[in-house]
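Contributing new records

If you add data, match the layout below exactly. Sequence lines come first and carry their own label; structure lines follow with theirs. Keep one chain per record. Anything else will be rejected by the validation script.
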Amino acid sequence: MTGRRRRTARFHELPKVWLRHQAQNALAALGRLLRTPLPTLMTVAMLGVAIALPGGLFVVTINIKALAVGWEQDAALSAFLKPAVTEADAERLAARLRERTDVAEVGIITRDEALVEFRAYSGLDDVLAGLPENPLPVVLAIASRPTASDAASLERLAAALEALPETDLVRHDADWVHRFQALVELAQRAVTILASVLGFALLLVVGNTIRLEIENRRDEIRIQELVGATNAFIRRPFVYAGIWYGLLGGLVACLLVVAGLLSIQAPVSRVAGLYQAEFPLIGLSLPVLGAMLGGGTLLGYLGSWLAVSWHLRAIKPE
């Protein structure tokens, strides 16, 4: 009975022993990196820059996409009425449109107001002065409600305006915003491709760094194999070294992205102020932060594991 209790106690202690052994290996690997600060710093800086490039570009695309969404919400529909429609008819049409649940406001641009604005921006005063009458139509400027400012709702509203007998042409001011958003989505795809390429490069960097460390400790590894050490036991310190490289590289990347955002916040605010607007930059969210740290750590682990597994095959006890 006493022997069974001892075996049960030892069985329950196995997780603690395993965790203690893992922690010892992790701290030993970190200490080994700190004993060679210059090579470690160079490798970590290289990893940090490689991780910061796609991470920073992704954050930039998020900010640009948020800006485009704000422009889309502020965009309006312009309904150019037929030449036969009078301003009184336009007033009655505007009153009907204001009753729609997806319309927030309807403004009327009269022919005279449109002519004044056209003269101010076109510079064709001589040509306009020679015309017998004002050729410009009455225009309705229609703003949608915030609950109906998405692309699908605006398209339905535009279709309803085009179906009106008084309407000659409907222009959606957010059309160019949709094209801009398509370019942003293309940029996000490019960032994904860049992240994949740089991720493969990180595997090579970590693998080459671990390979050099394996070569420096070749005799130690052979002795461990001679005394019966398993591949997992030999691999463990090198894998933890790769994990530390990836984690520290991810931290450096986060610092670089945050520093970059802080450096451009003031110029962005000045540009937004010129348009009587505010645009606070979107920083590193928790998912992006986790992706950069976790991605760096995972790549460090994979690079070191592959490098050790490859080189252990070439190191055999004599």
